[in-house]
Amino acid sequence: MSDQIKFTSPTEVELNEVEHPAWDEPVICRVEVDLPGWLTKLTGQAHWEVYSEEEEENCVSFAMRSSNHHRLHKAIEAQESDMQAEVTLYHNGYAVVDVNGKSLFDGALTHATNDCARLSYYHMSGEPIALN
């Protein structure tokens, strides 16, 4: 009699032994970002607004500005505390944020890196996908 016992679980299955048709279907990932809220968290300065948007094949870029003054009380001339930002959101989930020419964020846009972003997943039919 052998001292070695080999146990194989009846539910153990190799991934390539079973077809997963649902895994072969395209999935649409939609990212919604509160850009003014995100820039407020990154910079500590509020009152951000988008003044320009440019869409390219693989990304969307937003030019944004902020000042310490509310729009109704904004001084005619720009203050030194005014800030300019460029936010580029790539279709693959990557994002780059530059404020006054300095990089403040360069990475994946997920719930872990940005609580101002909400990711949603959909089937090609438009039906939402719930993730556990």
Describe the protein's architecture and organization.
With 132 residues, this protein is mostly beta strands. The chain contains one helix and eight strands; from the N terminus they run βαβββββββ. Strands 2-3-4-5-6 form a five-stranded antiparallel β-sheet, with helices on one face. The protein has a three-stranded antiparallel β-sheet with strand order 1-7-8, with no helix packed on it. It is elongated. The two termini are 46 Å apart.
Please name the defining characteristics of this protein:
single chain, 132 residues, mainly beta, 5-stranded antiparallel beta sheet, 8 strands, 39% strand
Overview in brief:
The protein is mostly beta strands and 132 residues long. It contains 1 helix and 8 strands; from the N terminus they run E-H-E-E-E-E-E-E-E.
Secondary-structure class = mainly beta
Please mark out the parts with pLDDT under 50 across 5 or more consecutive residues, or reply none: 6-11, 72-78
Question: What's the order of the H and E elements?
Answer: EHEEEEEEE
Helical amount among residues, as a percent range?
under 10%
Record the SSE blueprint.
Blueprint: E1 27-33, H1 35-43, E2 49-55, E3 59-66, E4 83-90, E5 94-99, E6 102-108, E7 117-123, E8 128-129
Antiparallel strand pairs: 1-7, 2-3, 3-4, 4-5, 5-6, 7-8
